[in-house]
Design goal:
alpha/beta; 5 helices
């Protein structure tokens, strides 16, 4: 198998060479052991070896209000390192005034690159899916339309998080509101 130019650069930065063992993933849970072959132009050969059993996917979806660009990228990076499978960006009353931090294709491309780098760094088998911003009302409607698990809203006036986690179903949907919190109507 030939690894593309970007992956070859990544291996070079890790100072890996011919014969070194690596683990490859498709970003959807499939992992394989491999051994590096020689460089062919800007690509590198990899000899595929045994498949690894897929790791269990974390049963958590993070729904987070659109926020400051730098903070959003940091959050996406850390969530991807932690193994969060899905991040849904949410538009709330208090997040609508925030400048582009999830709405443009440029931001989404940068966020996806950040999540990919975090997946590689952490050795995860799955790439975090970053969903385009959706209105809070639509998100809640979608959650209630299907049996998606336990929803948790982080609000200082709500029940303690650990109390909710103890009674949670198999999958958690964690909603984090904007700076200043959700409005009373929300």
């Amino acid at each position: 198998m030939l690894l593309d130019e970007e992956e070859t650069r990544h291996l070079r930065s890790m100072r890996l060479d011919e014969g070194d063992a690596i683990i490859l993933t498709d970003g959807r849970g499939c992992m394989r052991d491999a051994r590096l072959g020689r460089v062919r132009g800007r690509q590198r050969e990899a000899l595929l070896l045994e498949r690894r059993p897929p790791p269990e996917e974390m049963a958590l979806e993070l729904a987070v209000a659109v926020g400051n660009r730098t903070r959003m990228l940091w959050l996406i990076e850390k969530a991807a390192e932690f193994g969060v499978p899905v991040i849904s960006l949410v538009e709330t009353e208090r997040s609508r005034s925030v400048s582009d931090a999830g709405r443009s294709e440029g931001f989404r491309a940068k966020a996806e690159r950040r999540a990919l780098a975090a997946m590689k760094q952490s050795g995860s088998a799955r790439l975090t899916e970053i969903r385009a911003p959706v209105d809070l009302a639509k998100l809640l409607e979608d959650f209630s339309a299907v049996d998606t698990g336990t929803g948790i809203v982080l609000d200082r006036r709500g029940p303690r998080l650990f109390t909710r986690l103890e009674s949670a179903d198999d999958r958690l949907i964690l909603l984090v509101g904007p700076e200043g919190g959700l409005t009373e109507a929300e």
